[in-house]
User: Fold this.
Amino acid sequence: MQFANAEIRAALDELPPLPTEVSDWVVETGTDSADEPAVWVWAVLPEGNVDLDTRISIRDQIFDFIRQRSEIPVWVYVSFKAASEMDDAE
Assistant:
C-alpha cells in the first residue's frame, strides 16, 4: 500500500455523505493472514444500533474508495464499533 494510516483516515473524512454519521475512523495497514496487502477500517458509529443495510452501504463505499486509490491490489476489511465501545477501551 502506498499511503499511510493517517492519510487513509484523512481521506475517509472526505467521503461523500454517508447514510449515517461516522464519528471516527480507526485504520491499520499491513498484511493479512494470507500474506496479502490489507487495510483494516473500523467505522466508529455514535450509536451502535445501525441497521444492516446502512452498514452495507458504508462498507461498500469504503471498499470502493480504498481500492480505487491503491496502487496495488489490496484486501479491505471493514468493521463497525459503537462510540461507547471505544470509550470502554480507553
User: Anything to note?
Assistant: The first strand starts at residue 24 and ends at 31. The CA atoms of residues 12 and 35 lie 25 Å apart. The mean pLDDT is 88.
